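Table S2 (text version). Query chain:
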Amino acid sequence: MPQPVLGFADVHAHVSATSFLGGAHHGLPFHRFGVLGALGDCTLSHGPGGIKDIVGNFRGENPVPLHDNRGWPEFVDWPAAQSLTHEGMYYKWMERAWRAGQRLMVNNLVENETLCAVQRIASGRPLQSCNEMDSAMAQAQLMRDLEAYIDAQEGGPGRGWFRLVESPAEARQVIHDGKMAVVLGIEISHLFNCDLQNGVAGCDEADIDEQLDRLHAAGVRQMFPVHEFDNALGGNGIFDSFALNLGNKVDTGEFWQTYDCPEQDYFYDAGAVLLSVAPPGAGDDPLTATLMALAGGHLPLYPQGREQCNARGLTTLGRYAIQKMMEKRMIIEVDHLELSNKAEVIAIAEQQTPAYPLVSTHGGHGGLTVDQARRIMALGGLIYPYKGNGREFKETLDRLTAIKSDAYFFGMGYGADTNGLGAQAGPRGAGATPVSYPFTLFQGPGWGPQFAGIAPVTFDRQVSGERVYDTDVDGMAHYGLVADWVEEVRLEGGEAALTALYNSAEAYLQMWERTLDR
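Corresponding structure-token output:
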């Protein structure tokens, strides 16, 4: 039995999303000219006041919400928990999380061809390729470049704390050396170039074989079969009532076909009440207006008052792809799969000898029933929630503890989705015991005996340039606030929550070992 590791895991990050969405994203996790090159003024990317940031402006309260362009050192409006298109994972911010005990990260290579095609025009990059597989491969190279850059800051090759790994044995060695093991995953709608146009698949079995080999050779070890839109493999899990349906029409030529989501006990809620008429003001922001125009503007009729699930099931190509992923011993994500697709993939996993672990690391996008969640845990898989604040982490931990399998080592990390068009955790709000700065990790109340040999680390408020951050005011404004979030977890959940959190890297590695040991 390998020596266990101690540390926590973020199993859903997007460090490499720098070219994401045709120039929508501003900023870099590193730059050869330093922080000003990585996190400087965003006027060139987003236009004066952010006027060209059509993806980032999409979720604002105003028709075209603007933001102050100034980055380092002022950081007036960004980075921020609700800012979707500004860099949140600068390497020094990740280093602060590593100092707080993060020992494992899964970086998902990500792209969305439809949104990329819309944004690249506004960004002045009309010739930029939006092919999702090609973008993923370029991002894999960026991760290697980042590793080399951090090595250079720490004294030379192999000296850095950020290490790409391709096996659990390699990850264990990295973590025992006190560093962070980084696994590559992939989260795109056109996996293996398996897009869908008016019911016609854009790939065949030979394409799946070739592209799976390509990704494995690039170091990818974790995969989402489906992302935000339907593809040739199956249906995506519905969680948005309007805009993503427009995107599905643009991407595939068809709106979602649906059925009433079943009335069951859910670990994560399924579906959404879909709109048949555009809501008031829906076309006021440039992104929705563009999608409405491209989609023809006429939505199908959907039942009102009932959450709708996607009627597109797992296809013959989808079953082939799942089987090939298992033969390749990939870590398979069930999130973003439609609810019935999740059920079929779980059934396929249960039929393997030995049973094949599955993971849910992204808040169950598309829904996850309590029965499905229990079966994932019984497979030796894991469920790590979307990263909420410390209070939300404790609430999910209580729910997951109730259905965990006693046959397997238990831990619970999180998937932050930083840089991935996912809003970050906000403050805990009224009634929460404030984080008292400075705070010390690894000693004192809540820190169990397993931390006795670890040197305490004291953190004051995170300072970025001239900006001072406070987790009780700013939430997770950027990745440097992960350390402060750990203190939130201690305050909310005490020793039990810290134990589950710092067991999460080990739990992930044991799941990965079960994936390979067959």
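Notes on Table S2: The radius of gyration is 22 Å. The mean pLDDT is 94.
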